[in-house]
Amino acid sequence: xxxxxxxxxxxxxxxxxxxxxxxxxxxxxxxxxxxxxxxxxxxxxxxxxxxxxxxxxxxxxxxxxxxxxxxxxxxxxxxxxxxxxxxxxxxxxxxxxxxxxxxxxxxxxxxxxxxxxxxxxxxxxxxxxxxxxxxxxxxxxxxxxxxxxxxxxxxxxxxxxxxxxxxxxxxxxxxxxxxxxxxxxxxxxxxxxxxxxxxxxxxxxxxxxxxxxxxxxxxxxxxxxxxxxxxxxxxxxxxxxxxxxxxxxxxxxxxxxxxxxxxxxxxxxxxxxxxxxxxxxxxxxxxxxxxxxxxxxxxxxxxxxxxxxxxxxxxxxxxxxxxxxxxxxxxxxxxxxxxxxxxxxxxxxxxxxxxxxxxxxxxxxxxxxxxxxxxxxxxxxxxx
Amino acid sequence: xxxxxxxxxxxxxxxxxxxxxxxxxxxxxxxxxxxxxxxxxxxxxxxxxxxxxxxxxxxxxxxxxxxxxxxxxxxxxxxxxxxxxxxxxxxxxxxxxxxxxxxxxxxxxxxxxxxxxxxxxxxxxxxxxxxxxxxxx
Amino acid sequence: xxxxxxxxxxxxxxxxxxxxxxxxxxxxxxxxxxxxxxxxxxxxxxxxxxxxxxxxxxxxxxxxxxxxxxxxxxxxxxxxxxxxxxxxxxxxxxxxxxxxxxxxxxxxxxxxxxxxxxxxxxxxxxxxxxxxxxxxxxxxxxxxxxxxxxxxxxxxxxxxxxxxxxxxxxxxxxxxxxxxxxxxxxxxxxxxxxxxxxxxxxxxxxxxxxxxxxxxxxxxxxxxxxxxxxxxxxxxxxxxxxxxxxxxxxxxxxxxxxxxxxxxxxxxxxxxxxxxxxxxxxxxxxxxxxxxxxxxxxxxxxxxxxxxxxxxxxxxxxxxxxxxxxxxxxxxxxxxxxxxxxxxxxx
Lengths: 384, 137, 347
Fold this sequence. Notes:
The structure holds three protein chains of three kinds. Chain A is α/β, with parallel strands linked by helices. Chain A has helices at residues 22-31, 51-54, 60-67, 84-98, 117-125, 140-155, 160-173, 187-192, 220-225, 256-267, 286-295, 304-309, 326-329, 337-349, and strands at 4-11, 43-47, 75-78, 103-111, 195-197, 200-201, 210-219, 232-241, 276-280, 320-321, 363-370, 375-383. Chain A has a domain at 4-115 and 208-225: Peroxisomal Thiolase, Chain A, domain 1. The model of chain A has no long low-confidence stretch (mean pLDDT 96). Chain B is mainly beta. Chain B has helices at residues 7-12, 14-19; strands spanning 21-25, 31-32, 47-51, 55-64, 77-83, 89-94, 107-117, 124-132. In chain B, a hairpin with a 5-residue loop joins strand 5 (77-83) and strand 6. In chain C, 32% of the residues lie in helices and 25% in strands. Chain C contains twelve helices and 14 strands. Chain C has helices at 23-30, 51-66, 90-98, 115-129, 205-222, 242-250, 254-257, 263-266, 273-282, 312-316, 323-328, 335-341; strands at 7-15, 19-22, 41-44, 73-79, 105-109, 134-142, 157-166, 173-185, 188-189, 198-199, 232-235, 290-294, 299-309, 331-332. The relative contact order of chain C is 0.20. The mean pLDDT of chain C is 96. The chains are: A alpha/beta, B mainly beta, C alpha/beta. The interface between A and B is large, with 34 and 39 residues.
């Protein structure tokens, strides 16, 4: 069976990059990858969630190919809401496994700082059914808040059990040079930050961010012909979908798509979740961190907060989550986020994570969601 | 930016938005807000037009303090999840009350309200909301 | 010509938005002394309510009381001076919300505060002619009052709908007489594209309100009725003085006017104003009693009606909220929230 490798990565600091547009961010991030030689690309996947709404720019495949001096190379934009980056990675993984490509460039790019505050609320809500949800002024944050309230009521928990996730994320991001928010925060700060939709507080959500990240994927054949510094194996990747509206799911607090995708991805290399020491999860809202960790089995139902308190998800614990701060603190440039997650695992498994380094990890994994879990993607990476 | 302000979009959803006309699967009971011939839950092709009742019970709620585009002038406003007697759950705006007055399990009644307007010159969009039942003596 | 037989009100429904602002709160901002306030408080529509939603809710109560299949309604007329669109009918929105058949006559009417009773006149004619079986006549408004203007204290929001059809079992009130008196009297107007109306101040009194209502009631007398035979008199109620003053001029005792007066607690609901009085009277009248009603619309005219209350009112009255229950459902807002609800905060 063919194997898939990541042979080079690049990322930009997640920030408000006022002076840059989508094309300049893409060229800058790919510039960091050109240490890989020869520069021969079979296919390009560009992940971007809302460019045609916010920048009035669709057809990013052809546009990016031209910007990179790669006219002629097949290129396409991939959109799966907040999981666009992970969806593009899966597409690249499949292209290489199929034998149709030996080198695939996966780029995630998103520029949200162009949005007004109201647009920044509106855009994530595009992942819900607009005609029955968005049209009423219901926001994605409001649905997340209702799930949050259900969670606290069902398990009779104080809000701090969920609200400590952002504290942990900011702690991790404080050592990550590419993170959007490198300051530490406290539980008191989180719980006294402005209410977005009760009980959800502002410091439990993400802010508009610009970012671009890129990964060069290649087959084992290609790996022997190209010059590269470090390599990790993409040992598994999978995706699943769920009922779109969380409240129509059998259990709104169970992210079944995430669980299915994660276990299918783990099954490719045949490892167990305990083999994973570095895990990137999709914490666009604090409550999603709890729900993901409980849905994919790292914590008992309702116990993820307790596990955070025990240090299970921090350095020295069972598995380090979001070692660079996750969506919360590294930042959530929507369509680029999944690629950031993969790049960060690459950095961990190649010993290039700097102050964020997790020691002794052979496997890293990521879980990325669109909407509130209506689709989920999981990737497993293996040290080589 | 908002699809609802496009005349055909607004128009084709009017029966659902004004009167909760839905398409129900006669096999499994699942409700679709759009005309469909195949149930999205059980794939049965026995789907017929139906109308959800005028009353429903509140499951949970929150408040939108950071509104999306076109809802700026209404913020803060309440949105919630309601459940009809057949078990169908639906998101809805909740009007004519303060969040503190709402308790899960409470009965709410459907009204038709202004959802949003496209500036001063575009379409005005109407649709269902729920509110506490008017007190009768 | 104006006497009718075989035509009845089969259902009626009122709707009043729940917000109230006290006149004293408005005067706190603009500095009127309490003794000059024309009402105690007025109703204010919520930010998600307009004439179409108010008309639809009132109409749904009217249809519920009538107990008829809405698809048999043959006309929906909405009278208002605050239609949501300058061009695009309110009536079609209301009809679609109610699930009325598309084989329908519908139009929006404008005649200041008598646009609703004008709708009643039209529907009555359509039923009498046999063109339709049932018709809905609606008066609804979210009336505009310019900040600091005298009208700001009274311009209110509300709606009333009546289902009119052939008499028979279940009639709430028989419509015995309907007529109208109009002249070109410019006491109140609003030009196109203007947000707020203008008015002639004291000119709105003697030559306008009083002249037209008195002239309309005189027609009733000329047609052989004695004012003594009426148990109730309902007049347009722009403030708490005018309906009693006009009654006094006509020699009608205040106790016959009192049951229909709501202006003190909800303000002037414009196209719904006299109809709100009628709804309030129907909420309490006994079968056999007679009601005289005279609306007033600036510009100017008065529609006059005579109703005889029927047995049907007893069974149907409680199928929908009473006016008094809608009045009791209230939440006070201050002037700032009033400006927000009314869209008076300009960017």
